[in-house]
Amino acid sequence: MLISSLVAxxxxxxxxxxxxxxxxxSFSGYTNYLYRDDVTSSQLLFTEANSTNVRTRFxxxxxxxxxxxxxxxxxxxxxxSALTLSLVDNSLKSVQYDCNQTGITGQWQLSQNAELDLAxxxxxxxLRDYVEGGGILHPEMNYTLLQSSNxxxxxxxxxxxxxxxxxxTMTTDKQIQSSGNTSIALPAGTYQFTxxxxxxxxxxxxxxxxxxxxxxxxxxxxxxSDSTKMVSFLSYSxxxxxxxxxxxxxxxRDTLISLRILMPIxxxxxxxxxLGAVLERTNITDGELCHEETIGDYASWVNMQNGQADLxxxxxxxxxxxxxxxxxxxxxxxxxxxxxxGSGRATPFLSKTASLANNMTYKDLLQKNVDLVMNxxxxxxxxxxxDNLIHLKDGVPVGNWRDSNPGIGYGRIPFDVNTALxxxxxxxxxxxxxxxxxxxxxxxxxxxxxxxxxxxxLPLFSVPLNSTYAEQTLSDYTAYANLTSDLYMNSSASGNSxxxxxxxxxxxxxxxxxxxxxxxxxxSFNLMYNDNLTAELLEYSVNALRPFPEGLLTNVGLLIAxxxxxxxxxxxxxxxxxxxxxxxxxxxxxxMMVAGLGRQLDxxxxxxxxSNTSTxxxxxxxxxxxxxxxxxxxxxxxxxxxxxxxxxxxETWTWTFDNSxxxxxxxxxxxxxxxxxxxxxxxxxxxxxxxxxxxxYCS
Length: 699
Hints:
Blueprint: E1 7-9, E2 21-27, E3 30-36, E4 41-47, E5 56-62, E6 67-75, E7 85-87, E8 93-96, E9 102-110, E10 114-123, H1 124-132, E11 144-149, E12 152-158, E13 165-171, E14 177-179, E15 183-186, E16 189-197, H2 207-210, H3 217-220, H4 225-233, E17 243-244, H5 252-262, H6 268-280, E18 292-294, H7 296-305, E19 316-318, H8 328-338, H9 346-350, H10 362-382, E20 413-414, H11 415-434, H12 442-456, E21 462-464, H13 467-480, H14 486-489, E22 503-505, E23 508-509, E24 515-516, E25 519-520, H15 523-529, H16 535-544, E26 553-554, E27 557-558, E28 561-562, H17 570-574, E29 585-586, H18 587-605, H19 624-642, E30 652-658, E31 663-667, H20 669-672, E32 682-683
Antiparallel strand pairs: 1-2, 2-3, 3-4, 4-5, 5-6, 6-10, 7-9, 8-9, 9-16, 10-15, 11-12, 12-13, 13-16, 14-15, 17-32, 18-19, 20-23, 21-22, 23-24, 25-28, 26-27, 29-30, 30-31
Helix pairs in contact: 5-6, 8-11, 10-11, 10-12, 11-12, 11-15, 15-18, 16-19, 18-19
Signal peptide: 1-17
Keywords: Signal
Organism: Mortierella isabellina (Filamentous fungus)
């Protein structure tokens, strides 16, 4: 099923009270319902009648404890595809019982006699273990079947923390037959279903206060109101959530990248909730920032597996990623020094006391991260060799946003971390020190470090291309990918002849400093996080935004990788259109690209939106041809984004090439790899385009 099914509509008869959030969207074979009020927050999924998914499934996922319930159903007799389970319109509402049991209730329609095929209750992580782990079930998480009458059954699960329990009740007006946990026969008809648990409900940030006053219309505009609701559903005073249904919990990278792009339209309360959540989860020993938290029932299980059952459900924090450590300070500097909403907020925000980090102040936790950045960047600042760049951690195959080993070509030294995030972080320290938010003595050292990183790191990733080689390998790759040279030979960018780049930048470096020669979109981080880019990198940015496979652009979006020029042709098979981080499109990368190009142009205008506290205009701004080309590339990408409204706020999608039209068609990755990881209907960073407007200079 195409990702074009990602169409959001408000539920008919929307909630009467303003503090109730309800939204419905169809995505990849499932209808999703979001519901939140002051009692509960829940995302529900129902398999659609026309879905290609073989098994009929229901999921209820809660941000509270990242908890969830999942049930699969099979027909008692007959064709599996004929069995449907659908929500009755306007039936959803929250419930609250004794012992702080809160949750969601509604009615569904079961189309024919069926059996409960399988059920999992507990943590969303346990649900994911089954869905993504080849059917992994944890016997110690088994539920108990309670039957209160002939027409009602309850699946009951006592969490490892005995004070927490979940109930999943199904009630109808016909007789339900059951025999222990192994057989539950459900007659066709209408059911009242209720899922409750007594995990603490998070405090949602409503659409009305999610955005700042200057951008309130985004929440009411018919074209963006539903997307705003989805961002609101993922936003809480305690933290921002990465996405649903699979990631209804904290992820540092997702929070910080989303925040950096969305910040101009967000309210101070929302911004500080996001920044505070990151600081709260700082490793107080070394200043590392948390990538992912494991909470609730799954935290108890992880602690048990680690031989620390005495810790109960104490959260487990993952610090394996290297990029998150360098993403907080640029966001903080932008808020406090670059936005009106952050003016005067440094002292009250940083004086807060952390509830999750030994009651340390936010300023103390901030200093921990500052110390880490200065320590980890010092070796390269003093001796700028590849050995002294930031490597992935020993034994860990991932570390940046391309959260997979093949995603960075099996390299160990990521481009984005070293050429964009580290120097951007050092400049943030410099600016915060100059503003006396950090110790002023840090300013000079941070500036000197940044000068070295800005001038010396990028050349280490340079891959020069001989023109004869580049034209030949481009021709070979075009044939390999079953494309046509018409895509670039007839493009307005390159005229009627092939014009491959004379240089690309490696996606990563191997341990021996040899480059992974795959063209990629990660220069978007340089555009977004750096103020002192060279004319050469900006010219490269323009050249890379040419038609694929010469560059990265297709009519369905900006590709995040293009291995056409890679001399290691095994990477042609690694970065395919079906690969998670291959020649496919990611929405947030498109958003960061147009935002970053706009940000660089703002530097030429001295715009405060650039968060550049320097009054120095970049030298390249005097090159009118380059400025014009940057604008042209930006406008071309905007045209592509706006011509694909069905995936405007999707997380990732891929393509199929239509030989008859010589163009690309949006394709759901699941259509190419049916066993691929299930995608989320809503993902925080997929909505970052909300903060962007197509420039007036674009026709």
